[in-house]
Amino acid sequence: MFAPTPDRFATRDQLLSMSGLAFVEAILDGELPPPPIAKLLNYHLTEVGSGRVVFAGTPMVDHCNPMGTVHGGWYGTLLDSCMACAVMTGVPQGSFYTTLEYKVNLVRGIPLGTEIMAEGRVQHSGRSTGVAEGWIRGAVDGKLYATGSTTCLIMAG
C-alpha cells in the first residue's frame, strides 16, 4: 500500500493551519509540494486568486485512449483540479474539501501537444458546500475544448 511521504504531500497540520487560499498559494509558490498526479498528467498551477484557479497543461501520447485521442479522464482530472482548487480558496482555516460530484462536457478533441489552460471559478462558497464551474481552453488561441461543474463538500478538520 502507498504511504504518503512528507516530500510528496503537505501534512495534515500544514493543511489545517492555513486558509484554503493560503494553502493553494503555498503550492503555487513552491512552499508546499504539488499533487503527484499533476506530474503524471503533465499539468501545473499557474494562477491563484480568491475564487479562481488556473492550471496549464499539455496532453501527451501517454494520456491517450486506445483510439489515439486524449482520454476523457485527462479532461476530467484537469477540470476537477481547477474547479475544486477554486473552491478551496474559499475554505476557512481548520477546514478542507472533497469533491462530491463533477460533470464534464467535452466540446472537441485537444490535439496532442497543445498547451491548454484549465480555469475554475467559484459560483457559491458556503459553510458546508462549494460550487464551481470550469473550462479548458487553448493557451494560444482560446479555443474551447471542455466545460465542467462541481459541488464540493467542506469539512472541519
UniProtKB/TrEMBL annotation:
Alphabetized InterPro entries for the sequence: ACOT13 (IPR039298), HotDog_dom_sf (IPR029069), PAAI_dom (IPR003736), Thioestr_dom (IPR006683)
Keyword line: Hydrolase
Record flagged with keyword Manganese: no
GO molecular function, one term: fatty acyl-CoA hydrolase activity
Thioesterase domain span: 67-134
UniProt superkingdom: Bacteria
Family, per entry: Belongs to the thioesterase PaaI family.
PANTHER family documented for this protein: ACYL-COENZYME A THIOESTERASE 13, THIOESTERASE SUPERFAMILY MEMBER-RELATED
Protein name as it appears in the record: Uncharacterized domain 1-containing protein
Organism: Jannaschia faecimaris
